[in-house]
């Protein structure tokens, strides 16, 4: 049997590297800020391999070292570098159709006004809400239901995770990927409609702390760990007719 040609071996190795880098980028997007040892352990890579992939992704500006603000107490030794996905990394995870979508929404806003854009956003998120509804149980603890929502979003390509807040008073739903991130920078109604859908799915008040569209490294939604409130006829938790509370644009987690 003849040996494989060097060019074929190099091509297969390149394809394997590209696939592994994509997995690294997806994990950084969904779990960042995250350190190299955590990535290596999760993906079963050697320290040398994860350093090589992180170096490539950092050099191509798809990931960056996260500058923690107001972290915990100082520790001895050199702090671990923790990575988050950049806007370039987010773009690499999605298909580019943003400009066409933005043009269509600009036309809709010009001809139908802001209400038409909001109506489109609600119509668009209704499909997502319908897909997710079967995965989110109507009973169980808040933590279990948020985790189920995060799992369903992750399966839908949103690189989502659920993270308990210290103290146990809330759970944060984090989304490391958004298919309409670029368009939502101009039309935040898309983010608002999504947050309202989460509120309806979970049956509780939710608060958007940050979005990728406004500059956050993830979309972060805070869900309080309290007994669920009944929904009013508008589909929002009783006592909260306006739906979820949204942080001002530009606020980061």
TrEMBL record:
<dbReference type="Pfam" id="PF12840">
    <property type="entry name" value="HTH_20"/>
</dbReference>
<feature type="compositionally biased region" description="Basic and acidic residues">
    <location>
        <begin position="9"/>
        <end position="20"/>
    </location>
</feature>
<feature type="region of interest" description="Disordered">
    <location>
        <begin position="1"/>
        <end position="21"/>
    </location>
</feature>
<feature type="region of interest" description="Disordered">
    <location>
        <begin position="234"/>
        <end position="253"/>
    </location>
</feature>
<dbReference type="InterPro" id="IPR036388">
    <property type="entry name" value="WH-like_DNA-bd_sf"/>
</dbReference>
<protein>
    <submittedName>
        <fullName>Transcriptional regulator</fullName>
    </submittedName>
</protein>
<dbReference type="InterPro" id="IPR050313">
    <property type="entry name" value="Carb_Metab_HTH_regulators"/>
</dbReference>
<dbReference type="InterPro" id="IPR036390">
    <property type="entry name" value="WH_DNA-bd_sf"/>
</dbReference>
């Amino acid at each position: 049997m003849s040996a494989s040609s060097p060019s074929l071996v190099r091509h297969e190795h390149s394809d394997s590297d590209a696939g592994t880098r994509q997995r690294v980028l997806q994990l950084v997007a969904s779990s960042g800020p995250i350190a190299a040892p955590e990535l290596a352990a999760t993906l079963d890579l050697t320290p040398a391999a994860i350093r090589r992939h992180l170096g490539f992704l950092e050099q191509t500006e798809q990931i960056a070292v996260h500058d923690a603000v107001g972290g915990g107490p100082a520790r001895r030794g050199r702090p671990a570098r923790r990575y988050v996905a950049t806007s370039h990394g987010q773009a690499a995870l999605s298909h580019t159709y943003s400009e066409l979508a933005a043009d269509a929404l600009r036309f809709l806003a010009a001809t139908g006004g802001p209400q038409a854009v909001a109506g489109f956003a609600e119509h668009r998120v209704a499909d997502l809400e319908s897909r997710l509804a079967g995965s989110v149980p109507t009973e169980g603890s808040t933590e279990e239901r948020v985790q189920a929502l995060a799992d369903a979003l992750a399966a839908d390509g949103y690189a989502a995770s659920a993270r308990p807040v210290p103290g146990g008073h809330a759970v944060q739903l984090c989304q490391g990927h958004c298919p309409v991130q670029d368009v939502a920078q101009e039309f935040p109604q898309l983010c608002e409609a999504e947050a309202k859908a989460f509120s309806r799915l979970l049956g509780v008040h939710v608060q958007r702390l940050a979005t990728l569209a406004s500059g956050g490294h993830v979309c972060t939604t805070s869900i309080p760990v309290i007994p669920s409130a009944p929904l009013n006829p508008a589909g929002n938790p009783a006592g909260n007719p306006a739906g979820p509370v949204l942080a001002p644009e530009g606020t980061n987690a």
